[in-house]
Amino acid sequence: MEKHTKIKTILVAVDFTEKTDSAAILAVHMARRHNARVILFHNVMNFFIIDRTGRQMIGEDTVNKHYVEAENSLELIKNSLQQSYSDIVFLKSIGTDTITNSINKIVEEESVNIVITGTSGKQGLRELILGSSSYQILKGVNCSVLMMPENCKQYKFEKILVPVRVLEKLNEKLEISKLIAEKNKGFISLFGISGDDNFTTIRRAFIKIRESLKGSETEHYASFTVSNDKAVEISKASKDAEFDLIILNYQDEESWKSFFSENFFKQIINNTSVPLLFFKDNDIPPQDSEPAGYDITLPFPG
Asked: Distances in Å between the alpha carbon of 170 and those of 35, 221, 255?
């Protein structure tokens, strides 16, 4: 259980736009509360061409230029943050693989506990087809992911909404929820929610978790509702009580939905305006690895 009850290394994805500014600030505040270090990460997109001889890099000068520019920009951010927050250890890293492969390498090498990524709001058709970087990170990295809305300035989590909707890793999610509540001097609102088909199972798990909280020092409240529109109900509960953070289990009971349908992840991202922490255990395999760069497949001559 030790790995679930400490946050010692935080990676924040930086793309030098406004949407990652809030994510970086959040990483700093969390690092201070948890006595953690921060890794500033940026990924440089590669461009390549595929022909009958195999994959070949094109635009190498451009890629190298972008790498140097990214390295310089990341160093400036690191130095600026280090001056303002001298009590925090800042590291920087630049990836050149796919964004998820690059992050997963750092997750393994540096024992990263949480990846923070900024989100810019609702996903349009382009993001639905190609996949936004934040959504790729959520689906593909091997640790918990905290998604920070671009315009959000909520850096302390005093009111934490913890839905109980799927059973996988529920106890582990509760442990990290209690840790964050403790570090923020906040409280947990346990929100049981089930569809018509799994009411008994979810209700039983909800009661068990509620009872375990009664024996802890964590301030908490509890409620239960029945709905098949879980993302909508969670979003509504969050807005009504003005929660600071929603902690969700990285499981999607509606993953069978077609690509062009909004699964639970897309619904909750598009309908909330507070930070979302998706708890993901290290033994959960990543999904949907995205291509690195842009492929141009050439026909065979003749």
From this structure: 25, 17, 18
